[in-house]
Design a protein that fits this description.
The complex is a heterodimer of chains A (about 120) and B (about 110).
Chain A: E1 5-7, E2 10-13, E3 19-24, E4 31-37, E5 44-50, E6 53-57, E7 65-68, E8 75-79, E9 88-95, E10 106-107, E11 111-115
Chain B: E1 3-6, E2 11-14, E3 19-21, E4 23-26, E5 32-38, E6 44-50, E7 56-59, E8 62-65, E9 75-77, E10 86-93, E11 100-102, E12 106-111
Parallel strand pairs in B: 2-12
Antiparallel strand pairs in B: 1-4, 3-9, 5-6, 5-10, 7-8, 8-9, 10-11, 10-12
The chains are: A mainly beta (about 120), B mainly beta (about 110).
Chain lengths: ~120, ~110
């Protein structure tokens, strides 16, 4: 399977705990994105990387959230001191950068987080 | 700011009925437009796309035409099947941005 993969698929945690999610993009893709999707809504952009550089972060990404892509391949998203409002589906997408933004993003299956 | 508006659901159709899901966008420049589909418990799958005005994207019997004059990208299918039941998201990739902006999604239910 050469698609985007995410682990774990489901995570249940208690409020105040830290959680970390992993995303493995399509191998030749140089851009990697994180989105958050809450029930009944479309995905909302959180952050993106081009190779190992984090180039943009949304205002949705509070200081409890941190993302890394250390070698320009897989990425991790960590949430510290989780809150019940963090419960959502966290989606990862990857793409190959194209001129004038005409790229296509391919999504992974997501990690569903439930904070109790 | 940039935004995408989809018709609200759920849309409930009988098998073999004609489907239209409306989508309009607000953006500067010339964005690329996409339809993604999400089946229960899964991530988003790319359904079709169009990158410039008057382009028609098509896949699996679904079609959408990029209409710059009406800033629309309506999704259509001539004959829906039960297996088409899912949530459909319209999305816009802004020309000078680096992220997709999604609509709220439209639930489609097809009855046999």
């Amino acid at each position: 399977d050469t698609g985007v993969s995410q682990n774990p698929r489901h995570k249940i945690t208690k409020r105040g705990q830290n959680v970390t999610f992993r995303c493995d993009p399509i191998s030749e893709h140089n851009r990697l994105y994180w989105y958050r999707q809450t029930l009944g809504q479309g995905p909302e952009f959180l952050t993106y990387f081009q190779n190992e550089a984090q180039l943009e972060k949304s205002r949705l990404l509070s200081d409890r959230f941190s993302a890394e892509r250390p070698k320009g391949s897989f990425s991790t998203l960590e949430i510290q001191r989780t809150e019940q409002g963090d419960s959502a589906m966290y989606l990862c997408a990857s793409s190959l950068a194209a001129p004038t933004g005409r790229e296509t993003q391919y999504f992974g299956p997501g990690t569903r987080l439930l904070v109790l | 700011g940039d935004s995408v508006t989809q018709m609200e659901g759920p849309v409930t159709l009988s098998e073999e009925a004609f489907l239209t899901i409306n989508c309009t966008y607000t953006a500067t420049g010339y964005p690329s437009l996409f339809w993604y589909v999400q089946y229960p418990g899964e991530g988003l799958q790319l359904l079709l796309k169009a990158t410039k005005a008057d382009d028609k994207g098509s896949n699996k019997g679904f079609e959408a035409t990029y209409r710059k004059e009406t800033t629309s990208f309506h999704l259509e299918k001539g004959s829906v099947q039960v297996s088409d039941s899912a949530v459909y998201f319209c999305a816009c990739y802004m020309e000078y941005g680096n992220k997709l902006v999604f609509g709220a999604g439209t639930i489609l239910r097809v009855k046999s």
